[in-house]
Amino acid sequence: MTALSVIAERNLFTIPLEAVHDGFASVIERAGLLGRWQQLSMTPQIFCDTGHNEAGIALVVQQIARQKYAHLHIVLGMVSDKEWQKVLSFLPQEATYYFVAPPSERALSASVLKDYALQIGLKGESFPTISDGFLTAKSKANPDDLIYIGGSNYVVAEVLRDFFPQLLGYK
Question: What's the whole-model pTM score?
Answer without folding.
Answer: 0.82
